[in-house]
Structures are given as C-alpha cells and as structure tokens.
Amino acid sequence: MEFDLQYWHWLVFGMILLMVEIFLTSFTVFWFGLGALVVSAVLAFFPALSHPWQVGLWAISSVLFTLLWFRYFKPMMRDKSKAGNASEAIKGESGLVIAVPVGDKRGVARFTTPLMGDDEWPFICQSDVAIGDRIFVLEMSGNTLIVEKR
Length: 150
Fold this sequence. Notes:
Layout (H helix, E strand, L loop, with lengths): L6 H14 L8 H17 L5 H26 L9 H5 L3 E6 L7 E9 L2 E8 L8 E8 L2 E6 L1
Parallel strand pairs: 3-5
Antiparallel strand pairs: 1-2, 1-4, 2-3, 4-5
Helix pairs in contact: 1-2, 2-3
C-alpha cells in the first residue's frame, strides 16, 4: 500500500501545529506550523513533489521562519511602554508650586493629574521658584521630585 501525501495533509498538519501553539507560549511550534502551510501551498501547485523534498522544504521554511522571528520581528516587538517604571512615567509632567522651598524644607507642587496616586509632591529645584510657577519633573529621588523651572 502506497501513501501519497496531498497538499491538504500538510494543511491539516500545519493547522494542528498552529492550534497547539495556543496552549504554549513560546512560539516554537508556530514556526513549524507555518512551514507546513508553505509545503501545503507548494504541493498544491506541484503535486509531484517527492516526500524528501516536502520534508526538506518543511524543515528549511520552519528554520527560516524561526530565524526571521528572532532576528527581525521579535526585536521590533519589545515593550516600549513605561509601565512599571515610575520615574520614567512621571518625567516631563508639569505642576504648580504651592509652597516654596525654605532652608532645608522642600517645596511642594500640585499636579492636575495625580502622579502615582498623589497630586501634591515635595520637590527640589536648582533655581529659585515662587508660588504659582510652573515646574517640570526631571526625575524622582525617593519620595521627592527633582524639578526644573522653565
């Protein structure tokens, strides 16, 4: 009995591999599934393709997809959000001075949008500020903001 692989065998095999990827989070099986879909498409146009060529095409296309993923696509998908990085999230926010720094006592600024749950923050500023001046957050040091007046 001779078994001849048809394009739909590879199509079903590829779809099964893609569905298996739903339960895995590593993107390892996904590329083999895409490789099977490539073999399915090629076999649809060239039905006389021998079994060794089919398996070779599947292996090469799977490796190619894996390399493309790690080389080009995964670096483009890095998380560029500022979530989890509090000092980066508040950098550049502006507020108004409601208490000026006096001696060792820090000034206090009020922000229209609460920063990390609070709308009033103690601050340190290198230049002189007056009540009502607009200040901008440069960075955060402990529970004090380092600001500048623009």
